[in-house]
Structures are given as structure tokens and as C-alpha cells.
Specification:
Layout lengths: L6 H30 L4 E2 L5 H6 L5 E2 L11 H4 L2 H29 L21 H24 L3 H9 L1 H14 L8 H21 L4 E7 L7 H11 L3 H7 L4 E8 H4 L9 E10 L8 E3 L5 E4 L6 E10 L9 H10 L6 E7 L2 E8 L1
Antiparallel strand pairs: 1-2, 3-4, 4-5, 5-8, 6-7, 8-9, 9-10
Helix pairs in contact: 1-4, 4-5, 5-6, 5-7, 5-8, 6-8, 7-8
């Protein structure tokens, strides 16, 4: 027999589930981060370029077995590394916990909870939400990995701890979905999360850099038909922030390849990239463009609007290749680089090509 929940009961169950998961997540991350700082000290001579500019300090034993790509390996003592590890662990756990509490308040508390279950949503929203999952995991992993780079821990540990963070964060959210009566655990979402984190981990292990960047762009859509604007406000939200997160018709996701990274002997500028993007149009419901009220009555019929995918080709700018000695500016460029730079673009959709002078 299906169990029913009042709104207050659902809120309590969801909040309890959220706090339990956050506690487990916190213990897991603190433990793993503490272990990553426990390597015994070994003496390794730094490259000549660093010896000329910095006084030598001992670093950890993992450097004996892997390439050294992070200067902090040579500039920090094990005690300093351990202190930075604790700092970043607190930032990761505290920031993520706050985000999850906010997510619960904005989302899960308004819906009833049930036993853990899965559902198949692979065909919803023409698949663009799955790309969004992969992008979110990639962006979260990238931010986390750069924080771990600052700590000075070993290269592989930095890549795995930071690179897999996105998939870990998203999996906790997916677990919450699994207890929600309105949704469920989605294997397609889980696979997308792993794909996003895998993209950053694989490139770092292979090249020590992100030659292919996962990027995002957004432009708020408005329609001449008032019914479409009303429908968009209902399912995607009326505010700019809600549309930014939910309006699939306004989002474009890109894979941006840096040309110079693949062809180092070419005369191409280091910042020039080539991007392939995709988005959707005419999507006003998960499976179809029919909207119904709680009683099953049709309140929106958009079957005359074609649901289709769009594809884009465009140049791009790799902001991380812009040279600067300012650490703050370099960090801002790293963060901004997850967004596609506005450039001319060629679009293909509904069997036709279209040229955009500037597309974002």
C-alpha cells in the first residue's frame, strides 16, 4: 500500500534524510582529506628554475613516483600542506552543506517523500538536462580541483579528490531525488554526472591541462505568443535566476577545444579555441508540450510547436591562456572560463542553417 504524507511530515522526513546524507558526506570528505595529508617526508630537489627563485623546502613522498606539475609541491612544507588541506576540506564540506540546506528549502521540502526508488527519464527534455548534469559535475570538479592544487598535495591526489568531487556532489542530490515521490533515482543522471567528472579527470591525467573545456551560455527567451511566456513562467520560473537554472530553451552547452594545445607548433594564438554547442527549442514540458492541472484537465496545448535540437559551431576564447602575473585575475579567468565567450556562430536546426553575428 502506498504511504501518504502530509506536507509537514514530508518536510520532516526530507530534512532528516538531507542531514543524514550531509553528515555521511562530511565524515567521508574530512577522513579522506586528512589521509591525503599524512604522507611521510622525503627530500626531493626542485627544478633549477625553482631553486633560483625559492628556498628549498621538503615535500611529500608521492612526488617520487609522479611528474611534478604544481609549484606548491616545492614551496610548502608538509605542515603547511596539512594546514591547507584542512582549510580546503572545511570550505568543501561547509560550502556544500550550506548549498544542500538551501536546495532542500527551495525544492525538496515542498514535495512528499517516499521509499527509495528509481525512474527512467532518459528521453525527457530531449536530453538537454542530461548535458546539464554533466556540465554541473564538470564545473564543480574543476573548481574543487583548483582549490586542491593550492594545497600542494600530490598531482594524482589533487586530480582524483578534486576531479571526482562533482560526481560526488551530484550523486548526493540524485539520492535525495530517489526518496522524492515526484521523481526518483535516475541512472541516466548518474551516468551524466560521472561523464562530466570523467572529462576533467581524464584530461588532467593525460595532459595536465584541460584541452577541451565544457562551457555554458544563456540568453533569456521571450515569445510573441503570450501563452508561451505564461507557460515558461510556470514551468521554468519567472525570475532571471530561475530561468538561468531551469529554462532549457535558453541554455546552450559547449565543448571548446584549444587549438594550440593540440598543435603546439602552429602559429595559432594560444587563446583561440573552436567550439561545438547544442541546445533545444520548443520544449515546454518534459515529454511533450501538453500541460495539465491537478485534475488532469489540459491547461496548455503546445503540440503545434516543434520540439527540436539545435547545433552550433563557433570560435571561442580560452581565458586561461591570457597571461597575467596577478593571482586574483588569474583565478577570475579560471572561473569565467566555464562560460562561453560571445562570438559569431553557425546554427543548424529544423534542417536549416542560420548565422548569428554574435551568439551567447
Amino acid at each position: 500500500m502506498k504511504q501518504t504524507f502530509t506536507k509537514s511530515q514530508a518536510a520532516v522526513v526530507s530534512l532528516t534524510c538531507t542531514y543524514k546524507l550531509l553528515l555521511c558526506f562530511s565524515i567521508l570528505f574530512v577522513t579522506s582529506f586528512q589521509l591525503s595529508a599524512q604522507d611521510s617526508v622525503q627530500l626531493i630537489m626542485p627544478p633549477d628554475s625553482l631553486k633560483r627563485n625559492y628556498s628549498y623546502k621538503p615535500v611529500t613522498k608521492h612526488q617520487l613516483n609522479e611528474p611534478i606539475t604544481d609549484p606548491n609541491h616545492f614551496l610548502l612544507t608538509p605542515k603547511q600542506i596539512k594546514k591547507r588541506v584542512k582549510t580546503i576540506a572545511i570550505i568543501n564540506v561547509g560550502g556544500y552543506s550550506a548549498a544542500m540546506v538551501g536546495l532542500y528549502a527551495a525544492w525538496y521540502k515542498n514535495y512528499p517523500q517516499t521509499h527509495f526508488h528509481s525512474f527512467n527519464d532518459v528521453n525527457e527534455w530531449k536530453g538537454i538536462d542530461k548535458i546539464g548534469h554533466a556540465y554541473s559535475a564538470y564545473a564543480e570538479s574543476k573548481a574543487s580541483m583548483e582549490l586542491w592544487r593550492w594545497t600542494g598535495i600530490g598531482r594524482k591526489k589533487r586530480i582524483l579528490l578534486g576531479g571526482l568531487s562533482g560526481a560526488a556532489y551530484q550523486t548526493v542530490i540524485e539520492t535525495l531525488d530517489g526518496f522524492s515521490a515526484q521523481w526518483g533515482w535516475s541512472w541516466a543522471d548518474f551516468a551524466s554526472n560521472c561523464l562530466g567528472s570523467g572529462l576533467i579527470v581524464g584530461q588532467e591525467l593525460a595532459w595536465d591541462e584541460q584541452r577541451v573545456q565544457f562551457k555554458f551560455s544563456f540568453h533569456k527567451k521571450t515569445y510573441n505568443d503570450p501563452a508561451l511566456n505564461k507557460r515558461s513562467d510556470k514551468i521554468f520560473g519567472s525570475s532571471g535566476a530561475e530561468r538561468f537554472l531551469k529554462d532549457y530553451n535558453s541554455q546552450t552547452y559547449w565543448l571548446s577545444a584549444n587549438i594550440k594545445s593540440f598543435f603546439p607548433d602552429s602559429k595559432m594564438p594560444a587563446w583561440l579555441s573552436f567550439s561545438i554547442g547544442t541546445g533545444v527549442e520548443g520544449v515546454f514540458g518534459a515529454d511533450n508540450n501538453i500541460g495539465k492541472d491537478e485534475n488532469g484537465n489540459i491547461i496548455f496545448d503546445g503540440t503545434n510547436y516543434k520540439r527540436y535540437r539545435q547545433w552550433y559551431l563557433a570560435p571561442d576564447i580560452d581565458l586561461t591562456k591570457i597571461k597575467t602575473k596577478k593571482k586574483g585575475i588569474k583565478l577570475l579567468l579560471q572561473i569565467a572560463n566555464i562560460v562561453k565567450f560571445p562570438m559569431p556562430a553557425l546554427e543548424y536546426g529544423k534542417g536549416k542553417f542560420r548565422v548569428h553575428a554574435v551568439y551567447f
